[in-house]
């Protein structure tokens, strides 16, 4: 079939897919609302609303008409961009068509119901309150994975929802490399007598920290007309290239955590806002997956936000909004100290962070395989915290209840955090090579060149390329953990004077 014979099929396919995207994005706004501003009593209605939207989207993606258009479009003489669109839609259709609509709606409803239960359990420090919901979601996700591919490991099927173009074996290899490289480095750092600055010794109000968060976003170039800042129990970003919102949370004794959180979520939002607007609703207007998405947040949080150059000028905002009088060097040392005894993943330093990911990855795999009972999660969690970080949480709120992901049913998500971190190092290496004087620009608060480079190499392509294709185009190299390991060794050896 030639392109002249079937433009109607491709156009019809795209029109149907765009409608499904719009419904999914509407559900995303409802989810944002539930986590940020919805009154506590709104859950019964909200769970029905999100379930209905999930079902409506599934109906479109699995209809006979959609399949017929997809089959016809695949036979057409397509441009490279069109072929990429059809490739992505084919993959989504093949997975969606295997899953009953009733299961899709049940998962959506149960995850919406799980959110307030998780919040209550965390507030009450009581895993038992949340455990039944985890049991239900695990059962539903096993059923979901079995429909898609009964011959493949459940975790592998679920992982592909978040990273469709890198095999789970790649994630396992990266986590193994990080464990082998970082544990001895962390041990070595802890054995030094380095006396790094800890300049924040007061109490900093939520209002002052919110003001700093707003100043930070404005400083970085976050467009006010396309986003907003709020607080949430677990920081996140969501939206489209027209409306990308960020959230943060505050610790009144440690403003460094909120600074990192704001810059992290800004990185996510910048990627979302950088996707091509003219392609909204199509795969070319969607992100490449969570590995790439996380690379953008970790690049801004760590390679920019924790750099000495950035902090040398950014410190003025900190002093103005928090009423402190600290130097850029003091802020750099405070932002980069390695704390193995930090219990909270989103507040972890750049190195021990990956031990948190490894812990969660191992627990999820054991839960899904049936090798770990839900009731035993706190004990398993605490044992792994002691093994990897040498610290045991005193409460479930500081341990197995700290993350929101299981309330979302997001089993298989966590490895993308480490995959994104190693990709961030690769991309930043390439950006430094391509942008003359990037370090000096960051010190001067000038981010346009980096924004433009990331848009050119990553954002503008949407999901046109597979993950590794995108990496090779941007960096000239295959996806690898080498750049991150080299970066971590050099940075922290210098900071701790090894």
UniProtKB/TrEMBL annotation:
Its cofactor is Zn(2+). It catalyses: Release of a C-terminal amino acid with broad specificity, except for -Pro. One of its GO terms (biological process) is proteolysis. It comes from Halosegnis rubeus. It comes from the Archaea. The keyword Nucleotide-binding does not apply. This is Metal-dependent carboxypeptidase. Keywords: Carboxypeptidase, Hydrolase, Metal-binding, Metalloprotease, Protease, Zinc. Broad specificity carboxypetidase that releases amino acids sequentially from the C-terminus, including neutral, aromatic, polar and basic residues.
